[in-house]
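Course exercise 7: structure representation. Students receive a sequence record and must write out the corresponding structure in token form. The form below is the worked example handed out in class, using Methyltransferase type 11 (206 residues). Read each field label carefully; the graders check that inputs and outputs are placed in the correct fields and that the protein name is recorded exactly as given.

STUDENT ID: A-19
EXERCISE PROTEIN: Methyltransferase type 11
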Amino acid sequence: MAAADSEQIRRRYDRLAPWFDSLEGILEGLLFRRLRKKLWSQASGGHILEVGVGTGKNFAFYPDGARITGIDFSPKMLEQAQRKRQRKQIAVDLAQMDVQALDYADNSFDTVIASFVFCSVPKPRRGLKELYRVCKPGGQVLLLEHVLSSNRFMDFMMNLLNPLVVKTLGANINRETLKNVQACPFRNVYTDPASSDMIKLIRAIK
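STUDENT ANSWER:
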């Protein structure tokens, strides 16, 4: 890793933070917002962890009555989230943290949730195992992720373009996140029927 990889990606997200919402504005309006809402509609329990809180794009979907903790490894992204939290009066505890080494005890959260995060985690299976660890038995991990296409031509193009995308944006477009989740010791893993070839809604039960 690692530390070098994480630091490099952190710097890229720090650089993009002030313009991040604008950069994804069109896709957010056309597609991502609807998927985020669907993802968060499944969140349950008294204590929820959002991994990769970013600029606070999911604040609008937080369920009432739950204690919510949001983490991100980019301090500049967290600054944006803190401003939005204050502006919109959102009840969430924010902290800087790397998903690959969470500072939480085992079995801490009823739901652990992340959207478009594991494209930029240097060691995704390590991060997913951390989500499993901090999730309570019987709890759930909810993920919204873009993944490598099953189409052979798209697969080829995504792998070809991936180094350029990582260099400019810090995100991988060729991750096989569903397979990585299935490699963890979750009791059950489901994909939402509404998932597309390249965007997956995943629910994993511990």
